Amino acid sequence: MRLDEELFQEMERFRERMERTWQQLMGTTAPTRFCPPIFEPPADIYETEDAVVVVLEVAGIRDQEVELTLDGRSLTVRGEREMPRGPQGRVYYQVEVCYGAFQRQLALPTDVDPESVEVKYNDGFLEIVLPKVRRKATRHMRIMTQ
Questions:
Q1: Which of 18, 24, 43, 73 has the most CB atoms less than 10 A away?
Q2: Burial class, 54, CB count within 10 angstroms (exposed 0-12 / middle 13-18 / buried 19+)
Q3: Would the pLDDT of 77 be above 90?
């Protein structure tokens, strides 16, 4: 087994122990999530005849908080979801929404045109439409010699 796999497994065991301890301490049976320093929002990728479409669930962000990097067939989406301001002295009983930095690196199924990307944000979903690169048709020619 590789060292990084062992480290990941040890970290997962540690996270599970922390969750059990937290539940015992707080007396709750509700699952508690510990968000990583940089969380990965869920994503869907699908392909149409003309484009590759990536949809990320990132509710509560503003469009100036998102950065896209396209490198060949790799798309990286990063940004930040700020914790909403609320009343002083609030007491949480359950925390499941992750705030702070997020990043998602996705492999695209085909080459896309980085100059024609369209981005829309609606109802908590970021939709990224990446038009496919049009391949030139192969041309066969027959040359006759005398």
A1: 43
A2: buried
A3: yes
Q: pLDDT per residue over 22-63, tens digit each?
A: 777 766 555 556 788 889 999 999 999 999 999 999 999 876
CA 122 to centroid of chain Cα atoms: 16
3-state secondary structure the chain: CCHHHHHHHHHHHHHHHHHHHHHHHHCCCCCCCCCCCCECCCEEEEECCCEEEEEEECCCCCHHHEEEEEECCEEEEEEEECCCCCCCCCCCCCCCCCCEEEEEEEECCCCECHHHCEEEEECCEEEEEEEECCCCCCCCCCCCCC
pTM of this structure: 0.69
Query: ∠2-101-25 over CA atoms, to 5°?
Result: 75
